[in-house]
Amino acid sequence: MTSSEDTKHVNRLIAEKSPYLVQHAYNPVDWFPWGDEAFEKARKEKKPLFLSIGYSTCHWCHVMAHESFEDAEVARLMNEVFVSVKVDREERPDIDALYMTICQMMTGSGGWPLTIIMTPEKKPFFAATYIPKETRFGRIGMIELIPRIAEVWKNQFDRVEHSADQITKALRQVSDISTDGALSRSILDTTYHLLAESFDDEHGGFGSSPKFPTPHNLLFLLRYWKRTGDSEALAMVEKTLTAMRSGGIYDQLGFGFHRYSTDQKWLVPHFEKMLYDQAMLAIAYTEAYQATGNHLYKHTAQEVLEYVMRDMTSPEGGFFSAEDADSEGIEGKFYVWTEEEIRAALSPAEAEIILHFYTIEREGNFSEEASGEKTGENILHITGSLDEAATAAGISPEAAKLHLQHARQKLFSIREKRIRPFRDDKILTDWNGLMIAACARAAQVFGEQKYAEAAKNAVHFILTSMKTTDGRLLHRYRDKQAAVQAYLNDYAFLIWGLIELYEATFEIPSLESALSFNEEMIAHFWDTQDGGLYFTPDDGENLLIRQKEISDGAVPSGNSIAMWNLLRLGRITGNPLLEQRAEKIGKLSSSQAMKAPLAFTQFMVAMDFQRGPSYEVVIVGSLEQKDTQKMIAALRNHYAPNKIVLHHNEDSQSPLLTIAPFIRDLSSINGATAYVCHNFHCNLPTTDITEMLELLAVKH
User: Fold this and answer.
1) 451 Cβ partners below 8 Å, 6+ apart?
2) Residues whose CB falls within 8 Å of the CB of residue 427, separated by 6 or more in sequence, listed in order
3) Which of 439, 602, 614, 643 has the most other CB atoms within 10 Å of its CB?
């Protein structure tokens, strides 16, 4: 801003001592400090007052300031209609306490920024917290709200003081608007009920056969349980995850999941293993562990990642795509066992445990595809507990556990000498993005640095080996050659992984890359006419049509993940334009989502975040200090999916200040400090971990 512009836009707050008020001194809004001058002007000019209360380290205060109070159009409307007053809640807690109570009475909630519209006699008739510039997500925007307030004030002035409740109710109705293509909150309930109707109560999962894992169904159900407290939603997740982990769809010796089950019981899989299934299922098991504390889910996620890191990771760090179902021309041959093979490989005691625990039958449970006859071969699966296997074998549970560990390793070593299924060693950017997200999420929740290192190695590989000379992503790498223009999913899934990696390491380059790729994605894939993202870039091959994929299939759609990314990046940066694009994706998907909600469960995950409650958490303190580590660990140990987390080390030169300028004034208070914002308003900072968790509405 030039000096002439400073002079042009300076307002009365320039003379104030409050840092919060001085922050707004160059707004084009004609702000007044609280005082007689403002109320006298309002009475003289017969204008309502617009009261805005906040504080200097409030995230959503800064967002609203940048989006609306620094905007010339909004400022013009405010200056025409209102006398506008700024209050620092820390400087005038009396004013804040009075109007916060009124806001809570009128709206059922409160927080900062606090917005009150009132008469010159200081009687409020409208209350809200954050208001966007333009209407979105069911919140009326300033551009639409201000003319409506002006109309009410002009045409119903005599009734305003006496009819505050009625006017407030009317304004609430105006705020609760929906536009063509907007989805109501009830779609989340509808999706849940449809999943419940298709749920297999006996075996878990959805539908009959073939039965697919569809992990985004489970991610949605976990969030629905978190939102509503409905125990049946969590029960469906737990039943499915436990049944899959016990079934033949899971590789009981070498770990990892096969593609799907050909039967209803999860017993006989299609033996192919896909990288994207490992990634999405690892995330589902990790989140389920956060939600329940059940160590079976933690161990399963860790085993899946062990398989990927052992068998599906290139020396350069990228993740391979898949392993075939067949070996020696026969599907499943690598994975199945006869009773005789097991007895020959193990000691008698070990064999008895394996035979009972993995439900081995002499005649086998695996049929030849052509004849349907049993072959004597078995798919290892679990139908009982280890204690039951110990009882059947006539040994103690402790001895059974040791035998199981030794026997499993022996069988795995023998199996490694078999002819392996073909491994597809091409590296795909989009599937790598999913696996980066899975590794980074596991690093957060389990506190295992090796997962963060695996994610960082994959990111480094993509950034150095899978980009064009002008910085564009490429889709595929194999035999030292990267090719094929990247698709929407490459960008969307990699951005997801980079966001998760930032939250795992708090290393700012991950966040910078996420934002850079997001800009590139918007530049080349965004539909400027109808919104949403095409699957191919604007300079891609010209096919018959340029498609948009919006429904979720074996992997989530790029639009679903992009919507989620945009919401999270919008909260990280305080940039409302990103959330506006997310809303446009939502409108694009709405009509089809209403017709077939079960094809949009990852989209529902994004919508659940958008609808809230959602949180922004900034942890201030040195990562080297134990109190900061404890606070971050507590944050990661609990299931609070709809949040973004930033770490600020109070370095005035940190590049994070450019990305998230609202953190500039955040400081530690006698140690590690948490700043928690919730649903567009901010709470006071806390150094108490229990209080932080309470602000996040998690059990501790």
Assistant:
1) 305, 439, 440, 442, 443, 504
2) 314, 318, 319, 320, 321, 461, 466, 476, 477, 478
3) 439
Beta strands in 215-359 (DSSP E): 260-261, 269-270, 273-274, 322-323, 326-327, 330-331
pLDDT band (50, 70, 90) for residue 107: confident
Is residue 664 pLDDT above 60, yes or no? Answer: yes
Q: Write down the CATH number for the domain with range 3-175.
A: 3.40.30.10
Tokens 């370095």, located at residue: 651
- Identify the H or E element spanning 600: none
CATH of 612-700, one of 3.40.50.920, 3.40.30.10, 3.50.50.60, 3.40.50.300: 3.40.30.10
- Answer yes or no: are the C-beta atoms of 423 and 320 closer than 8 Å: yes
**Which residues lie below 8 Å from residue 660, measured CB to CB, with a gap of 6+?**
572, 573, 574, 646
- Name the residue type at position 501: L
Amino acid identity at 565 = N
Distance CA 76, CA 99 (A): 25
CA-to-CA dists, residue 631 to 391, 644, 679, angstroms:
44, 15, 22
| Helix axis angle, 295-311 to 449-465, nearest 10° | 40
- Between CA 669 and CA 673 the distance in angstroms is 6
Q: Which residues contact 240 (CB under 8 A, 6 or more apart)?
A: 204, 205, 218
* DSSP H stretches of helix in 337-396: 339-345, 348-357, 386-393
Q: What tens digit of pLDDT does each residue of 415-433 get?
A: 999 999 989 999 999 999 9
Lowest-pLDDT range, 163-177, 240-254, 281-295?
Answer: 163-177
CA R_g for the chain: 29
pLDDT in tens, 504-533: 999 999 999 999 999 999 999 999 988 999
Here the tokens at position 334 are 């690598």
Round to whole Å and give the CA distance between 9 and 76.
12
Q: Which helix (H) or strand (E) holds 128?
A: strand 124-128
φ, ψ of residue 491 to 5 degrees: the values are -70, -50
Q: CA nearest 328: which of 255, 240, 421?
A: 421
Q: Specify which residues 395 forms β-bridges with.
A: none
**Where in the chain are all domains bearing CATH 1.50.10.20?**
185-311
pLDDT tens-digit readout, 519-578: 999 999 999 988 999 988 999 887 666 788 888 988 999 999 999 999 999 999 999 999
DSSP class of residue 662? G
Residue range(s) occupied by CATH 3.40.30.10 in the chain: 3-175, 612-700
What is the 8-class DSSP label of residue 257? B
- Cα–Cα distance for residue pair 341/337, rounded to 1 Å: 6
Indicate the pLDDT class of residue 165, thresholds 50, 70 and 90.
Answer: low
Contact, 191 vs 597, CB < 8 A? yes
CB 195 within 8 A of CB 206: yes
Q: Which of 498, 525, 493, 496 is nearest to 510 (CA)?
A: 498
Beta-bridge partner residues of 620: 648, 673
CATH of 185-311, one of 2.60.40.2550, 3.40.50.300, 1.10.3720.10, 1.50.10.20: 1.50.10.20
pTM value is: 0.83
